[in-house]
């Protein structure tokens, strides 16, 4: 019989994979403003432990809360739901270059 984990899980997209055994995952959600009732897009970024280094830029992954691996890494990659296609990777790379002020 399989035991069910009581740890929190989230689904997000890998936005950075340049550090060894670590990826940065962004979770997006929509919340309603309490006063104005307008829907606002919010995002949260997590540093996630990737022991096999199998995640690539743009992948859709499921992460699970775990013991702290470092000061900021408290999540681990459980599965890769969908691999990123070339268009998604290109868009993410352009976004990181734009935010860093790099002109290719």
From TrEMBL:
Q: How does it assemble?
A: Part of the 30S ribosomal subunit.
Functional note: One of the primary rRNA binding proteins, it binds specifically to the 5'-end of 16S ribosomal RNA.
Question: What is an annotated GO biological process for this record, any one?
Answer: translation
Question: What organism does this protein naturally occur in?
Answer: Candidatus Ozemobacter sibiricus
What lineage is on file?
Bacteria, Candidatus Ozemobacteria, Candidatus Ozemobacterales, Candidatus Ozemobacteraceae, Candidatus Ozemobacter
* Family affiliation: Belongs to the universal ribosomal protein uS17 family.
Keywords (alphabetical) are:
Ribonucleoprotein, Ribosomal protein, RNA-binding, rRNA-binding
Record GO terms (molecular function)? rRNA binding; structural constituent of ribosome
Which SUPFAM superfamilies does the UniProt record give?
Nucleic acid-binding proteins (SSF50249)
A Pfam family recorded for this sequence: Ribosomal_S17
UniProt name for this protein: Small ribosomal subunit protein uS17
Q: Name one GO cellular component term.
A: cytosolic small ribosomal subunit
Cross-referenced InterPro entries: NA-bd_OB-fold, Ribosomal_uS17, Ribosomal_uS17_bact/chlr
